[in-house]
Amino acid sequence: MKVEGCAYCGDKSEFPHGKFVTALPMSDVYLFGEQSCPGRCIVACNKHVNDITDLTDEERNAFFADVVKVSRAIQEIFHPGKVNYGAYNDNGTHLHVHVVPKYKDGFEWGTTFTMNAGRVSLDDVDAEGMLKSLREKLG
């Protein structure tokens, strides 16, 4: 089911919060527009649901398998000290998880990541190189 006006249900090429990377079995992956933590991605369920409990057990397992696949790709490409995960949905209605690589001695190490730090945009980094590397790893 697609929902009119939902950023995650709309045209992937016009996603307002980053750039489309690839589709996985249960999700769409985006390189997040704010890159203070290089490699940060969003894994959005390809089914419009409001909460993880709205998925069947099989769908939930497939969704989290996608999250793990993205995390592994981020770890192999960007070599962070740790990866954080966030599923904050207070103001939204579409299940998605932020996969946020954190770097020792880097931005916000040892703290919860900021949703929209506004420091580093995709225009400030090699977004095309990042997209290419992620697409190669994620297949």
Give the structure's gist in a few sentences.
24% of the residues lie in helices and 22% in strands.
How widely separated are the two ends? 25 Å
Low-confidence stretches: none
CATH level-four homologous superfamily name: HIT-like
E-strand count = 5
What structural class do the secondary elements suggest?
alpha+beta
Strand content: 15-25%
Number of domains: 1
CATH architecture: 2-Layer Sandwich
Estimated radius of gyration = 14 Å
Instruction: List the secondary-structure elements in sequence, H or E.
Output: EEEHEEH
- Helix proportion: 10-25%
How would you describe what is shown here?
With 139 residues, this protein is an alpha+beta fold. The chain has a single domain (12-131), classed as 2-Layer Sandwich (HIT family, subunit A). Helices cover 24% and strands 22% of the residues. The protein has two helices and five strands. It has a five-stranded antiparallel sheet with strand order 1-2-3-5-4, with helices on one face. α1 (57-78) crosses α2 (127-138). The longest helix has 22 residues, at 57-78. The chain is globular. The two termini are 25 Å apart. The model has no long low-confidence stretch (mean pLDDT 93).
Relevant terms:
alpha+beta, 2 helices, HIT family, subunit A, 139 residues
List the helices and strands and how they pair.
Elements: E1 18-24, E2 27-32, E3 41-45, H1 57-78, E4 82-86, E5 96-102, H2 127-138
Antiparallel strand pairs: 1-2, 2-3, 3-5, 4-5
